[in-house]
Structure formats: C-alpha cells, structure tokens
Amino acid sequence: MEQVEKSTVQTGIKPIRVGIAGLGRAGWNAHYGELKHKPEQFIVTAVTDPIALRRQIAEEHGIRAYETIEEMVQDPDIELVDIATRSSDHYAHGMLALAAGKDIQIEKPFAQTYEEALELSKAAEAYGRRIFIRHNRRFDADFLHVCEIIASGMLGNVYQIRLTRHNYQRRADWQTIKAFGGGQLLNWGPHIIDHGLQLLESPVKQVWSDLKHVVAAGDAEDHLKIILRGENGRIVDLEISGGIAINSPTYIVYGTRGALSLTDNDIHLRYLDPNVPLATLEVNPGTPGEAFGKTGTYESGEQLVWIEERIPVKPEKTFNIWDELYASYRLNHPFQIRMEEALEVVRIIDEVKKGTIFQ
C-alpha cells in the first residue's frame, strides 16, 4: 500500500462536498463524527434521514437536512453521496445517487448480493460516475502490522491464518433481521472477508462455511465460520460470532519458521533465529532410539534457536480511509480498495449463504 501524505491536501483545491444518507451509528456517529475534523478535505453539505429528530440535530449543526434521499440526491451542491443507510437499502440508494449524477461512497456491505454489486458497478460505468467502498477496516493498525510481519519473511512460508471476532451479544436491533440485511455475515463479515482475501494472497480455490443463529434475537445468523483455500494452498480460517463468551486471539498466523498470535494490542511472536542456519535434514528410516541416539524421539536432535517476544501493535505505515478517498477523488490517486476486490468480497458472501436458511 502507498501511504497518502498530508501534503496531498493542497492549497487551492476545494473540499469535497458530501451528502450523507442515514444518520445512525455509522452515518452520524462515525462518518460525520470523522469528517467534521477534516474541513480542508470534506464539507458535509446535506444529510437525509426519515427521523425528524435526527434532521433537527443536523440542522442545528448548520447542515441542510432532507426527509428523503430522493430529495437529497437532487441537491446541486453535493458531489459525493455517502450511503450509510441500512444494508438492505444500499443497492437502491446507490442507484438513485448514480442516476442523479452523483459519485457515491457505500458503507459496507457494498450490496446484499453479488448480482446487486455487479449492477451498481455497471451503472457507475454507464453514468460515468465513481463508487468508493468503505472497507475502512483495511486500514486497522493490527491488520497492517500483521501484513508487515508476514511480508518480512520472519515466519517463513505462511500456510495458515486464523482471524476471529468474538463477543457475546444478545442483540435485538435491526442488525438481527434478515429483511434489513442483518446478521454477522453482512455486519462484520465484509471487513473480515476483505482481510482474509488480502491475507490469502491468491485467488480463492475453495470455500467452506457454516452459519448458525445462537443467542441474538431476529432470524439472521449471529455465528459463522468460513474457510478459504487459495490456489497457492494457503488456508484462511474466519470466525465471527456474537455467541462466544471467551474471546480467542484476533489473529493467529502459522509459518514454516514461526508463528504469531495477536490479542488486543499485543503481538506474541515465536520464530527461528534468522542468523542461525538450519541443518539440511536427511530422512532416516531406522528405529528412533537407535537412529537418533540420546534423543530417543522422532525429532532430528537438531538444536533450534528460537526468538520469542511480545510487541505492541505499531505498524510502520498507517492510513486513513478519508485521506485515501480525498487523494483519489481530488488528486486522481488510485483508491486502495479496488472495485474488483470489493466485488470479490460480495461474491464470497453469496457463496457462504448459498443453500442455507439465511439466503
């Protein structure tokens, strides 16, 4: 990834004029809450939400508020429509904004189905507009640091990775209802599947999954397991749950020269000292006690020199999705989340749901 430097906010370049659709936890608390601190890059010009109190609060902040998205997308002062409505509305609201001549950013999930995601992508091409997918977790510090460690080679050839997001939540909001696009697969799923596809470093060859409804209200899944096998042979094991009372490490990485475990802000590393060369092994068909002398085991008897350490999460490079969006929109830099990557996330989601009661 190429880091966007602060100098990309250039004097004389106007901020992007944004209209936010949906003023809930994502739209108001996260999107507006972050954008108000970036006035050189973004101005929230207008918002829309069906709830009158939310519109009133926005107006108290000096923002035009519309009752419907149909009204807001016609606002000539808006360049970019930021869609933060319920998951089930992303497709329809994206289509409305594109047809009105607006570029769009879509909160995850991109769409509920792969077919919808493809149609949005094709519509953007037809209208000559741009779509930006908010896979903001691509820039989480722990994910970036794990990627750096894998790329360093200290763990050798990485052959298996496990990612988990565990909690115990007797959740009862709209995110538990299938009709609104609820469930962990469309909630945490797009983020963690995106991580998994990046860590796989290969096209997907096989997908295995299991979805369950365990403790939440509603009819959507709140526990899921996905296993991705790449064409390169690497396995990525994803587990997302609102029904697990004891959390597991969020990352476990296995390589031919060591392993990594990450919990909270703590990375535990155990790897072979790179300054100590390994002997060339030759297989011996003899009885272990006779063939290997004092060891009497199935090991070679070689003395391995391990390095074990704990380090805080602190990647060498950090990124911010709003900076990336600004640099792409105003300065024509490539956007880090490419359309083909976002489409692949939704394709995997379709594969995972296929044949289940959660379709």
From TrEMBL:
Pfam families: GFO_IDH_MocA, GFO_IDH_MocA_C3. This is Dehydrogenase. Gene3D superfamilies: Dihydrodipicolinate Reductase, domain 2, NAD(P)-binding Rossmann-like Domain. Residues 16-134 form the Gfo/Idh/MocA-like oxidoreductase N-terminal domain. Residues 143-260 form the GFO/IDH/MocA-like oxidoreductase domain. It comes from Paenibacillus qinlingensis. PANTHER family: CONSERVED EXPRESSED OXIDOREDUCTASE (EUROFUNG), OXIDOREDUCTASE.
